[in-house]
Each structure stands twice: as C-alpha cells, then as structure tokens.
Write a structure and sequence with these properties.
about 120 residues; alpha+beta; two-stranded antiparallel sheet
Length: about 120
C-alpha cells in the first residue's frame, strides 16, 4: 500500500475523476447541494537511476508526480431552500376553479362512474 494510505483503485487522472464525480452527483441527484473541487498536489519520490540492489554508492533521481485530491462541500443555503419545498407539489391545472375545488374534482374524466367500476387510467 502506498505511503499516504491511498487505495490504488479507481480513476487516477483529473478528467476521469471529474467525470466520475459528475456521474455520482447526477446519479443521486445532489448536484445542486454538493460541490466538489479537485486539487493537484505534487508528491516527490526518489527512484534509483540504475537497476539492482541499492548500495552506499547508488544514485537516485527525484520524480515529482501530481496526485489529484478530491474535496467535497455541502451548500447549506441550497439545502435550506430545498427543505422549504420538500414534499410540496404545485397544482397545475387549466381550469378556472379555485385550488380548493380543483383538488376535490375527480381527474381523468371518471367523475360519472361508480367507484366499483371506475377503471379509468
């Protein structure tokens, strides 16, 4: 396992990580409430210049790689706005009836059928 305890699975390049994050946000429909940022952090690693077992005379070269690190934050204002309308469904109608009467009016043109034989869909 690498020294920074990072698992070596999943996307490793910044565009692939961005696509994966967008897909997750779209899958769970939370793109309005969760924001993410990808930061490229440099990591230095020393590698032998020649192959074989190291000795006191072995020379090394420094290789710097950039590791993409994802951080996510919640948008508290957007979550509060969404909580105010959670469970509320707007009444959309093309009649001139007031909302109280329109809610009690039968839908689908089945108003003249008996309850036992009402099979309108």
């Amino acid at each position: 396992m690498p020294a920074d305890n990072r698992r070596a699975r999943g996307p490793k390049k910044e565009p692939a990580i961005r696509r994966a994050a967008e897909n997750l946000l779209a899958k769970y429909r939370v793109a309005d409430w969760v924001h993410y940022q990808i930061e490229l952090q440099p990591r230095a690693q020393f590698i032998q210049t020649t192959r074989g077992r190291p000795s006191p005379w072995t020379t090394y070269k420094q290789v710097v790689r950039t590791i993409p690190v994802v951080s996510a934050t919640q948008d508290a204002a957007a979550i509060a706005r969404a909580q105010t309308t959670d469970g509320t469904f707007p009444l959309v109608t093309n009649t001139d009836l007031p909302p109280e009467v329109a809610n009690r009016t039968p839908k689908n043109g089945c108003e003249n059928l008996q309850p036992a034989t009402a099979e309108c869909k």
